[in-house]
Write a structure and sequence with these properties.
Blueprint: H1 2-38, H2 59-66, H3 68-99, H4 106-113, H5 115-118, H6 121-131, H7 138-145, H8 162-187, H9 191-199, H10 204-215, H11 217-232, H12 236-241, H13 253-262, H14 267-296
Helix pairs in contact: 3-8, 3-11, 6-8, 8-11, 11-14, 13-14
Length: about 300
């Protein structure tokens, strides 16, 4: 009787899981497998309809890693990701510490900070494009009024400043996300722990280093890993603000893969660059799961 009940409950569990599993297979699994197979062919606009593409093995991947433009894209991707992570986490942590204190209008101010995170990325990219404009841009006008610069800076059309502008806009979006997750971690720390430490003579810095940071480790780990994944696969921000230009200075793996597939119609090369992006994120995901498993143990 107990075995029949256990089988019935297991069957019911599979029944609830099956729709989601089928959805994942059809919507995510099939395109991923198709893209993986496509990356080992020589499919382009010439042979796409005829189906005359042939298996070329690792040739697409070898050509990519030998391409100086792709090397620049890899460099841009990691610079963009690491710079955004450092800025977002630092400022987000400071905001989380600030808003964890109880003071008047803490809720409304925190709500205003969240506006950047709640806006669609395409709208944020358009705002950033206008803010960093040459003549009518808010950034140039503000810097000129403060006397920092004397002539407008061509932020988005210069290879030396375009990536900086994109990083700044992405940080504006990512800081509220970091603040939210870190605030939830801070609220989970009991005030009794701080009071006990204060009674033992610990100052603010000691309480931060020996209480806050150790107890915030799971939240910090989640913020860094999720932030890396979301930032590393960025596409819409660059596509709207700069379209990867000028001269590929803001091209990242997401925009490069799109350009190869849907602008130059080198479908196999675009699929190969997309698989490299997937591989990097897959490794980071495994690393995150391993770390969280250690934390649980």
């Amino acid at each position: 009787m107990k075995m029949n009940m256990a089988k019935k409950k297991r069957f019911e569990g599979y029944t609830f899981i099956m729709p989601g599993f089928l959805y994942m297979i059809l919507i995510l699994g099939y395109p991923l497998i198709y893209n993986f197979i496509l990356s080992f062919k020589n499919t382009n606009i010439k042979n796409f309809k005829s189906g005359a593409s042939v298996f070329v093995g690792l040739e697409n991947y070898m050509q990519l890693f030998k391409d100086p433009t792709f090397q620049l894209v890899i460099r841009n991707t990691f610079i963009f990701t690491i710079a955004c992570l450092v800025v977002q986490f630092t400022i987000g942590f400071l905001f989380a510490m600030f808003f964890s204190k109880k003071f008047t209008f803490a809720g409304p101010i925190r709500g205003l900070v969240l506006i950047g995170y709640m806006m669609p990325m395409s709208v944020t990219a358009l705002l950033g494009k206008n803010m960093f404009g040459v003549t009518e841009g808010v950034i140039n006008n503000l810097l000129m009024k403060l006397g920092v610069i004397h002539t407008p800076v061509e932020w988005l059309v210069s290879t030396s400043t375009a990536l900086i502008a994109v990083i700044a806009v992405n940080c504006w979006v990512g800081i509220p996300f970091n603040m939210l997750l870190l605030t939830s971690g801070l609220t989970g720390i009991s005030d009794d722990i701080y009071e006990s430490a204060s009674m033992d003579g610990a100052n603010k810095l000691q309480r931060f280093l020996h209480i806050t940071l150790p107890l915030m480790k799971p939240a910090i780990l989640s913020v860094l890993m999720l932030g890396f994944i979301y930032t590393f696969k960025a596409f819409d921000l660059m596509f709207v603000m700069t379209a990867g230009g000028p001269l590929n200075s803001t091209d990242v793996l997401g925009t490069y893969s799109y350009t190869q597939s849907f602008t130059q119609y080198e479908f196999s090369k675009g699929a190969a660059s997309a698989m490299i992006l997937f591989g990097c994120l897959f490794i980071i995901g495994l690393f995150y799961l391993r770390l969280t498993a250690k934390e649980d143990d």
